[in-house]
Design brief:
It is built from 9 helices and no strands. It is mainly α. It is globular and about 65 Å long.
Length: 316
């Protein structure tokens, strides 16, 4: 039996109930954490077949998003459901690296194809040769991911997440205290605000990438808190989610542009096509990405202001 055809664990095999766990405003915070883990592991399992087949890159993307959400909720509120949360979060990081390697190449390849499609016909062939380099890289990364998904380590990880989501007999960590998920949003908001205040007028690319990660943590925390929101809080939570999503998009565009421009520099520095058509196309793409980087840099502070206003309104 090949790695591609290895049997995979299903929701039933993991002991998940037939219906997803629900949580409402009257439920304790720990129940909301377990319900969130239950939803996300079901999402991960649902997108695993498509990730294995590679037929649609969106499956891998959604599998990675589910994993990131689980890591985020365990980082923020894992103590509410037991001391085993942190080791599981660390293992999810291992899987995230394998998924991320393929996903980053999917984004790169998809974007390059869109850009090259707008080039003159005489540059199309060179553009396809450029893309083929990254397609080869992607194939190797996909083989590594398939091995990870077919490993005993992956199966064990799924079982551990399932236990965290449904084993209510596990004691919470000794440091765990009664927790209000809405009030808990103040902490990731403060961290994001502090990071913004610490930035110079012209922040580095790494600084803005770190800012995006802070914003993502706030967004995922708001997604968790949404199910515990009382009626008067629902609209404000939604406003915060929309603002954080926009913030993430702006800084995500910035990071993608930075990475793609750097990839094009690597092509130009390789010496494989000095002054040739592939190098010419790579240079054109790098120029476009640097312009996209500039646009994102002009927009992120307004996007942050919307996040800050929405977060403050929630606690007003």
């Amino acid at each position: 039996m090949t790695a591609e055809s290895s049997p995979r664990l299903t929701a039933a095999a993991l002991g998940l109930p037939d219906a997803p766990v629900e949580a409402g405003p009257a439920d304790p915070a720990a129940h909301h954490v377990r319900a969130k883990l239950d939803r996300e592991i079901r999402a991960l399992l649902a997108h695993e077949p498509g990730t294995r087949s590679g037929a649609d890159p969106e499956d891998l993307h959604q599998m990675r998003v589910a994993l990131r959400r689980m890591r985020s909720v365990l980082k923020l509120s894992g103590a509410l459901i037991g001391a085993g949360a942190e080791p599981v979060r660390a293992e999810l990081g291992w899987l995230g690296q394998s998924l991320g390697e393929v996903r980053d190449l999917d984004v790169l390849i998809g974007h390059l194809r869109e850009v090259i499609a707008d080039f003159e016909v005489r540059d199309q062939a060179a553009g396809r040769r450029l893309v083929s380099r990254f397609v080869t890289e992607r194939a190797a990364a996909k083989r590594r991911l398939t091995r990870a998904l077919s490993s005993a380590r992956y199966s064990t990880l799924l079982r551990e997440v399932s236990l965290l989501a449904h084993d209510e007999e596990r004691p919470a960590a000794a440091s765990a205290k009664p927790h209000d998920l809405i009030a808990g949003l103040a902490k990731p908001h403060r961290r994001l605000a502090k990071a913004v205040r610490a930035l110079p007028a012209d922040p580095s690319d790494d600084d803005l990438h770190a800012l995006r990660i802070h914003g993502k943590k706030l967004r995922y925390a708001a997604e968790l808190a949404q199910t515990s929101a009382k009626k008067k809080q629902v609209a404000r939570i939604r406003a915060l989610l929309e603002a954080t999503k926009d913030f993430q998009t702006v800084l995500g565009d910035h990071q993608d542009a930075v990475i793609i421009a750097e990839r094009m520099r690597t092509v130009l520095d390789s010496g494989d096509d000095p002054g040739g058509p592939v190098g010419f196309v790579a240079g054109r793409i790098a120029e476009r990405e640097l312009a996209r980087r500039t646009e994102a840099r002009a927009a992120w502070r307004d996007s942050w202001a919307a996040v800050d206003a929405a977060a403050q309104a929630l606690h007003a």
